[in-house]
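Example record

One chain of 545 residues, shown exactly as stored in the release files.
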Amino acid sequence: MITVRVWKACLLTILMGWMLLPQFPFAQSAIAFRNADEVLARANTLIATKNYDSAIALLKSAIERYPTETPLYLRLADCQELQGLTILPPMQAADPAAAFRRQLNRSGNAALARDLFETYGKATMYVPDIDPVRARVADLVGSQYPVLLGDAGPLALPGDPLPYLITLTDPQLPTEARGTCQGLITTNPLPVTPPYVRDPKYGTDHSFDADPTYGHWTFQRMLLAYDYDRQQRCWRLRFRVIWQAAPGQEDARLHLAQDCARLLLRLDCFLQAYTGLTPRFTTDGVNNVWLTEKGAAGGETYDDSIYLYNVGVPRSPTEWVRELAHEYGHEVLPPVGGYTMPEWDANGYLGERLFLRWLLVNRDPADSDAWVRDLDAREITSTRIDEVIRRFAALGPEAQDMAGTGKTAMDGFIGMACYLEISRGSQYLAKLLNVLGTPSYGGPRGFLETLAAQEAYYQDPEHAIVSLRLRELPAGIPLWVYLRDGVWMGEATGGAPGSVAVDGNEVKVTGATFTTPTLTKGWHRITLTPVGDAPMPDALKLVRQ
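Predicted structure tokens for this chain:
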């Protein structure tokens, strides 16, 4: 495992190597100055007028002439922070020194490359006099740690940040959404800055003044988790994990905070790749996670905050993941609600199912994260996902029980949402949730009516096609499909359907195709029954004739 010291050295070596590339139109301007101090004076003038591009170009060219002048690197870091840019590439080199040597050789100045490598290119390399970098941290963080980090942000950020890579491999994702997401997590506890010493609900809300368990909480430790925004080319703070001092449990709480940060970065990566949705309650895109020593073991959301209560109570890996996925579901998924039990809205329980499913389909057996590696895939799939889909399939979208306010109705909606996400795709479900007029299942502009309107839009009269993915659905369930009026031809792929029934009536099957009778506009039930032990088809395409 790469050490924090080597990691920071690698960051700096690659940054320096990139700075030395012959790409700066202001290269001659640095030579016109008598020394580095004059360059800094000129750069400060440019920065004061917010002419960041010119200041950055000047400082980069000056570093080529004065490669050992630490203040140039520091001012360049400051300027890039102000501009909010980053060009830091992912750290994946097995041999940091060799990577640095290759970067330097690209500069075209072999002598300079050789001299710099001898001076700085060893695996434990630091900028000369690293203490000034630490001294600049106060300017970077102020009263709270930065939401945006530029080129040298990971180097200057306290808490020894280390990279965290998340790989998306689900073949159902678009090609551009697959690959590696980059994260950055501070590995050592940071002091809690003033805005986060007290949590927003139990630390400051006077309604808890008389409560001996929940009132007046204070927090002493913090970790930060960033992800890399490839479009904007910057590191964005996504989570603050904040916890209370626990004598004798310092290491355990630190490890828990790190596990939470890693999992939440992974969930955030999935959210962006699968849905494009963003957190609903934050002004800056950051969710705060509060780990408490008291309270009933469990979780809660409050505005932009997630609480995990009484974290000293042991949980299984699946339970830790479920709790965080549930609360993060409340933070990011548009709600369908109006339920009297188990809670008002269903987006927490739906978030559990979606995030757990995405964790499983993207899981690497060699994953280093114990929480993800040790998830019980069979229990999650059969009990938490397939079971609610079967409940929905047995009821149907328009059943009276689906429009109720109790647990049966909520489970029915969750099952329907999971069914749509698997059979129609995550973007399909996300778009549907995002355009709801009212946060209810039934009624005007509710979930069911909005779904029908969305299907009517997709099924234009001349080219109506509905494609269903069946491979990950529970075997043997009826397929519920909203169809326009008319005759539809069905074609199965990946297996012969055997017999087919439409709304309970068998239709003729020829090979892998069948034709429905004339249907009225609305919901229809299609049941495929393979012959003997033959597998279910992988997909079904319905085309209006």
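Notes: The chain has three domains: 4-138, 148-316, 464-545.
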